[in-house]
């Protein structure tokens, strides 16, 4: 897929040595913005997530293909090549490609690429303008640096599981790999900063970003609550540590999220609910008082919320300026008129799909001057090997055949 208008990162080329979720999320975001992302995969195996199914993309006869939905979620806007980094010829070819790239992103265990001659310290003098982003579980330094890292471990060690879920039950992780995703987002942001620095000074640098650090960083208000107040936060279910009422309540036919961020919103909810006694009760007059008396208030609200349907509550509370919403299952998310209006589903052509396209979650950012354009669906394994070697290195068919014969690709 092509576009006539330039994208923000047109001209930036990325050598992508990542797999699973954190690194691929980073490079997908950059690819959406126009970077030429060359996804480097192991011959015959590829990214581990290709086999993380079902579900898989369905072929022409409804059969499962080799492309899992998990793999699709983080590998749009890339070109796939295969390189055997276990062979000297593969390493030599990798260095030739790196010489033509602005950014290298990798998520190998600390020290693994150095053994192959592709560590930052080994490349920085040969490629002084190269931005080298290392995504790991625990960072390049510290006592845990050499440990393998996974999203689940980061959520546990980074504290988010200790404040997630219902009080009195076992700790609960977030339902998606949010430590991976946020690490990918932090990595992409700092690659953009490093590109700005490189363009100004000509200097590359290493970016050291890890799951644990990023997980700790997005403890945000709860982490700062502890640092300032000294009290260890506890799980509150759907409640908020600093705002009351801010919770999910049963309605007549489902559930409603009620989120009163200030005293005026609380009083307007009381008016809509006909809860005059809760509006005038001195225990609930201000947010600090409602925090102090949260258990008492939460015991009194449910009978009011059960008197109307979810749709009725949303209609009436929206009209009164009170934040509220449904608890949608994922099928209802993609059927929601606002989600549809914002184009949060995108269907891209795919060579293995029986109906010719695969459905993906769109990039959520809307740029007025350089709108995102999806040039590539998540590629099949090695789909672009010949294309990239010819385009980037100027190799002809005989050259490429020779590299294949040596086992480099």
Q: How are the elements arranged and paired?
A:
Blueprint: E1 13-17, H1 22-32, E2 36-41, E3 56-58, E4 64-68, H2 69-72, E5 78-82, H3 88-98, E6 103-106, H4 120-123, E7 131-136, H5 151-157, H6 178-201, E8 205-210, H7 211-217, H8 220-229, E9 246-250, E10 255-259, H9 263-273, H10 276-280, H11 287-292, H12 294-300, H13 302-305, H14 310-320, E11 324-326, H15 330-335, H16 337-341, E12 345-349, E13 357-361, H17 385-393, H18 397-406
Parallel strand pairs: 1-2, 1-6, 2-5, 6-7, 7-8
Antiparallel strand pairs: 3-4, 9-10, 10-11, 12-13
Helix pairs in contact: 1-6, 6-7
Keywords:
3-stranded antiparallel sheet, alpha/beta, formyl-coa transferase, domain 3, 15% strand, 18 helices
Write up this protein.
This protein is of the alpha/beta class. It folds into 2 domains: 13-218 and 338-406, Crotonobetainyl-coa:carnitine coa-transferase, domain 1 (Rossmann fold, 3-Layer(aba) Sandwich); 246-250 and 255-326, formyl-coa transferase, domain 3 (2-Layer Sandwich). The chain has 18 helices and 13 strands. It has helices at residues 22-32, 69-72, 88-98, 120-123, 151-157, 178-201, 211-217, 220-229, 263-273, 276-280, 287-292, 294-300, 302-305, 310-320, 330-335, 337-341, 385-393, 397-406, and strands at residues 13-17, 36-41, 56-58, 64-68, 78-82, 103-106, 131-136, 205-210, 246-250, 255-259, 324-326, 345-349, 357-361. The strands form 4 sheets. Strands 5-2-1-6-7-8 form a 6-stranded parallel β-sheet, with helices on both faces. Strands 9-10-11 form a 3-stranded antiparallel β-sheet, covered by helices on one side. Helix 4 (120-123) links the parallel strand 6 (103-106) and strand 7. Helix 1 crosses helix 6 (178-201) and helix 6 (178-201) packs across helix 7 (211-217). It starts with 12 loop residues before the first strand and ends with a helix. The model has no long low-confidence stretch (mean pLDDT 96).
């Amino acid at each position: 897929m092509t576009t006539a208008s330039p994208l923000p990162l047109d001209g930036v080329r990325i050598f992508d040595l990542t797999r699973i979720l954190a690194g691929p999320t980073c490079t997908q975001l950059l690819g959406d913005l126009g970077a030429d992302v060359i996804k480097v995969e192991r011959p015959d195996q590829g990214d581990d997530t290709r086999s993380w199914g079902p579900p898989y993309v369905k072929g022409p006869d409804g059969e499962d293909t080799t492309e899992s939905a998990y793999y699709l979620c983080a590998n749009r806007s890339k070109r796939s090549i295969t390189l055997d980094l276990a062979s000297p010829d593969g390493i030599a070819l990798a260095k030739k490609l790196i010489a033509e790239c602005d950014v290298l992103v990798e998520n190998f265990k600390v020290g693994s690429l150095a053994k192959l001659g592709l560590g930052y310290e080994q490349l920085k003098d040969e490629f002084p303008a190269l931005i080298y982003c290392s995504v790991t579980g625990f960072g390049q330094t510290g006592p845990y640096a050499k440990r393998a890292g996974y999203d689940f471990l980061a959520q546990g060690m980074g504290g988010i599981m200790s404040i997630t879920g219902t009080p009195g039950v076992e700790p609960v992780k977030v339902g998606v790999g949010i430590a991976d995703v946020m690490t990918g987002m932090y990595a992409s942001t700092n690659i953009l900063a490093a590109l700005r620095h490189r363009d100004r000074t000509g200097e590359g640098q290493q970016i050291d970003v890890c799951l644990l650090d990023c997980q700790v960083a997005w403890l945000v208000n709860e982490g700062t609550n502890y640092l300032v107040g000294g009290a260890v936060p506890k799980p509150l279910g759907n409640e908020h540590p600093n705002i009351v009422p801010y919770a999910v309540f049963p309605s007549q036919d489902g559930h409603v999220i009620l989120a009163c961020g200030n005293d005026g919103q609380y009083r307007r909810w009381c008016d809509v609910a006909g809860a005059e006694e809760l509006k005038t009760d001195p225990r609930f007059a201000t947010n600090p008082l409602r925090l102090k008396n949260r258990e008492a208030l939460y015991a009194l609200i449910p009978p009011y919320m059960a008197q109307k349907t979810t749709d009725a509550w949303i209609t009436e509370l929206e009209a009164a300026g009170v934040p509220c919403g449904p608890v949608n299952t994922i099928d209802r998310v993609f059927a929601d008129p606002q989600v549809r209006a914002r184009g949060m589903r995108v269907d891209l052509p795919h060579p293995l799909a029986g109906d010719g396209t695969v459905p993906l979650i769109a990039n959520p950012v809307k740029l007025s001057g350089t709108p995102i354009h999806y040039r590539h669906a998540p590629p099949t394994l090695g789909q672009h090997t010949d294309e990239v070697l010819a385009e980037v290195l100027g190799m002809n068919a005989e050259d490429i055949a020779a590299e294949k014969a040596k086992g480099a690709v």
